[in-house]
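To the team - MP5 complex, inputs and output below.
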Amino acid sequence: MGSFNILSIAGTDPSGGAGIQADLKAFSALGGYGTTVVTALVAQTTTGVAAVHPVPPEFVTRQLTTLLDDVRIDAVKIGMLADTGVIEAVAAALDAYRLRNVVLDPVMVAKSGDRLLAAEAIEGLRTVLLPRADLITPNLPEAADLLGEDEAADLEEMEEQARRLLKLGPARVLLKGGHLSTGDSTDLLVEPDAPAVPFTAERVPTENTHGTGCTLSSAIAALLPQRAGVAEAVRDAKSYLTEALRRADDLEVGRGKGPVHHFHAWW
Ligand SMILES: Nc1ncnc2c1ncn2[C@@H]1O[C@H](COP(=O)(O)OP(=O)(O)O)[C@@H](O)[C@H]1O
Ligand SMILES: Cc1ncc(COP(=O)(O)O)c(N)n1
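Output:
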């Protein structure tokens, strides 16, 4: 088996539960070699975001070109982008280096409700980055914001919204149902001209959900070069996340919504 280099382009989390720190843990756990480009320094913990310090777009570009001139990248996870300048810097590098297996998690707000993407940058995310992604992984509020619609309330509305998101240009959409008030937790994988594929997991009874979205998108990116197709990568990423959620209450990290517990995967 070969060695796979996975890149996270995202913001930071000093408490280690979300952002770049979560992404590196997921990459390692799933057999990838992790590399990173930082888009914003975020002073945050399990209790919320205290401050955001975006990296100037020229310096995001400098990190990208320095890395990509040396290291072959087999898959990319894109998370927090902060503002329009950073979005444009990332899009330019995706094109210049013809990056493949691009998973875009359209991060907009932290679980605490604090903004991680400027409201005026949503248009740039929609028009500049969505068309360049092989897979986008919005949660229900992010899908609604990207479409300018209300949040989907059931699986049928989720599929309709995922199909409208496809029209914005990504090759596939994984619409995450973590925010639905259902007994289990179902995400829908939708691509053109094929039936939607549901991925269902038990809803784990824990308050410690800091980093679930970061972990899922990073796990998918780490697995894409190692699996036969996107559906197989999503299936195994979702099982990894569910087990990390089951183990979350073993950790003692902070006073708020604690992180999921990364572990060495069994496959
Ligand atoms: N309590 C839970 N039990 C099991 N899976 C969950 C739970 N909460 C979220 N998930 C899963 O975690 C992933 C991310 O969740 P979601 O809350 O939808 O996104 P985000 O973290 O981006 O807000 C999805 O696969 C979702 O189904
Ligand atoms: C830098 C950064 N990126 C993303 C998130 C969202 O985290 P979650 O995975 O809990 O939705 C976060 N809190 N911080």
